[in-house]
Amino acid sequence: MIRKALIVDDEQELGLILVEHLRHWGFEPTLLLEGKNVIDWVRKNRPAVILLDLMLPDIDGYSICETLKLDRDTNLIPIIMTTALTDQDDKVHGLQVGANTYLTKPFTAETLNHAIENALNWLDDLKRNGTQGEIRFHLQSDTHYLEELNHLLGSLFLFSGLTQQQVKQLTTAVRELGTNAIEWGHKKEPDRIVTIDYRIDPEKITIDIKDTGSGFNPTNLAHIAYPDDPVSHMMVREMLGMREGGFGIMMARGLVDEMSYNEKGNEVRLIKYFSADVPLRSEDGRTITQNQ
Question: pTM score > 0.70 for this model?
Answer without folding.
Answer: no
